[in-house]
Structure prediction request, 123 residues.
Amino acid sequence: QVQLVESGGGSVQAGGSLRLACAASGYTYCMGWFRQAPGKEREGVARILRTSGSTYYGDSVKGRFTISQDNAKSTVYLQMNSLQPEDAAMYYCAARGYGGGCRLAAEADFNYWGQGTQVTVSS
Prediction:
């Protein structure tokens, strides 16, 4: 069983930046970030394959968000720049504990989930 602990959420003004972190307690094949705003479906934001470092982003965050990892700390980061009010949501870290699909469009690909960290963006 892998535990994911998120940190780094908070409040920021539009145009500002935040960095989220997610520490995993065990092996993960891939890790990703999802977000859910009130009244909306959860959407995939970004994911990274732990071995290759290959990354993939949702269309709404391309060019503004960057996912990275520190393998020594088993931690994945989400650097969020140029934040807008529509980025406000609960952000969840997710991970897959074995090889296979790791698709942002398929939440079922991820079998471990964190508790979430809130991001608020004021205009």
Q: What stands out?
A: DSSP finds no helices and eleven strands in the chain. Residues 30 and 50 are 5 Å apart (CA to CA).
